[in-house]
Structures are given as C-alpha cells and as structure tokens.
C-alpha cells in the first residue's frame, strides 16, 4: 500500500472504532490525527479546546506565522511543506548557545530560557510545548504579564512532575489553547496537532 492509502485506511479504522462523537468539524481532524499518531483513544476524553482556538491556529498559519517548539523532536515532526506554502517558519531555540548561557546564568532549565528568548518571534504565532512543563508554565507567566502574545498555545508536556498541573494552569487561562487533562502528551502529539492545523489551513484557502 502507498503511504496515503495507509493513512486513509487508518482514519477509516479510527472513525469506525470511535463511532458517534461530539467534536466539531474543525476539532475532529485534530483528535483523529492525535489518535493516528499514538493509537491512544483516551485523547477523546482528555483533549480540551479553548473556543475558536482551532480557527486561531489556522488563521495564524495562513498569515505565515512563526511556529516555535520546545523540542527539536516536535520541530522535526511538523510538516514543513504546508507551513512554507504560506511563508511560515518552524523553529526551536532549545539548542541555541545563547539559551544555554541564559539558563546557566539564571539557574533555570533551557526550556524555560528558550521561551524567554522567543517572546518577539512568537508574536501572532503558535508556541508548541510537547515536553517541558517548565516551558509551558513560563509561557503562561509571560502571557499573563502581556510580555508574550502568540495567536495560540499547543500545550502537551508529558511526565510526572508538573505536566498535568501546567496544563491545568493553561486551561485556567483566558487564552486560545489546545491541551489535554493529565500526564500524557509528548512532542509527537504536539506536532500532530500542528500538522492537522496546517492541512486544514491549506484546505480552507
């Protein structure tokens, strides 16, 4: 089978197993791609969408926004073709020498320092967290302080220390987000959401 045939068949299997659901027409492609990426149907129960977050993400991509990730794994997993069609860019600052220096001086994580360094770039863009709760918590702080203003936040840190708590903080924020309840997440899941948004951005042209 060709790659597209495999993907199409996978989606049909997912839709058959899920059956009826309450997701909107713009939410379901995201949830379906998350399940396709992870084979984890639990995301149906745990995913959370801020009202209009999907449209905010699609519009940002169509404007050619910056998409900034907290890990290079998420950056690599994002489809560049659709993003580049709109003049957008995908980047990750975690390995930058200036970020490492700032983190060492501040005694913080590189993920946190990378958020600080990305404030200007993320204006009107999408910040994608697929690993580090410290990155998401810092981003929430900066948004509250009006020092950062992305179009939306994709928050899927994974793990046992502050992963669930950071997502709860995001859900308490009156700001466009896509996230989930609990410890699960990861760079692959976060990237899959950007990919779903990018495909919808192309389709909506």
TrEMBL record:
GO MF term list: precorrin-8X methylmutase activity
InterPro entries: Cbl_synth_CobH/CbiC, CobH/CbiC_sf
Location of the Cobalamin biosynthesis precorrin-8X methylmutase CobH/CbiC domain: 5-199
Coiled-coil stretches: none
UniProt keyword annotation of Isomerase present: yes
Protein's pathway: Cofactor biosynthesis; adenosylcobalamin biosynthesis
Keywords: Cobalamin biosynthesis, Isomerase
GO biological process, one term: cobalamin biosynthetic process
EC number: 5.4.1.2
Family: Belongs to the CobH/CbiC family.
Identification of the protein by name: CbiC: precorrin-8X methylmutase
Organism in which the protein naturally occurs: Desulfobacula toluolica (strain DSM 7467 / Tol2)
């Amino acid at each position: 089978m060709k790659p597209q045939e495999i993907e199409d068949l996978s989606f049909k299997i997912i839709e058959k197993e899920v059956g009826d659901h309450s997701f909107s027409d713009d939410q379901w492609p995201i949830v379906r791609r998350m399940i396709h990426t992870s084979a984890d149907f639990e995301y149906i129960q745990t995913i959370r969408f801020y009202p209009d977050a999907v449209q905010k993400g699609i519009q940002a991509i169509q404007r050619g926004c910056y998409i900034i990730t907290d890990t290079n794994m998420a950056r690599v997993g994002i489809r560049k073709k659709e993003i580049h069609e709109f003049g957008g860019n995908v980047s990750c600052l975690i390995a930058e020498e200036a970020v490492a220096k700032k983190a060492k001086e501040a005694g913080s994580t590189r993920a946190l320092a990378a958020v600080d360094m990305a404030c200007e770039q993320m204006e009107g863009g999408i910040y994608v967290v697929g690993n580090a709760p410290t990155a998401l918590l810092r981003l929430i702080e900066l948004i509250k302080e009006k020092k950062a203003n992305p179009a939306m936040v994709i928050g899927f840190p994974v793990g046992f220390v502050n992963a669930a708590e950071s997502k709860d903080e995001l859900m308490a924020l009156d700001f466009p987000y896509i996230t989930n309840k609990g410890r699960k997440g990861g760079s692959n899941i976060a990237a899959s959401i950007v990919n779903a948004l990018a495909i919808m951005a192309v389709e909506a042209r």
